[in-house]
Amino acid sequence: MPTLPQLESDILALPENQRVELLNRVFKAAEPVADPSVGAAWEDEIKRRIERVDSGESKMVPAGDVFEEIDRRIG
Known about the structure:
By secondary structure, the protein is mainly alpha-helical. 76% of the residues lie in helices and 0% in strands.
């Protein structure tokens, strides 16, 4: 069995697209098995958020403004 440094060297020698695909597979394999109801709950939450934006109840803030505010607060 190869050692971690050997694996790392082999992985870094791969073309970028293959490294990305390998990482995606490893991350997917490491994810815990999700409760199907969690996905449904997120779908419901996404719909509620979209409805609030569409109705004007929620205010949209440009990402640049958000990051500027974060930088201002945490320096």
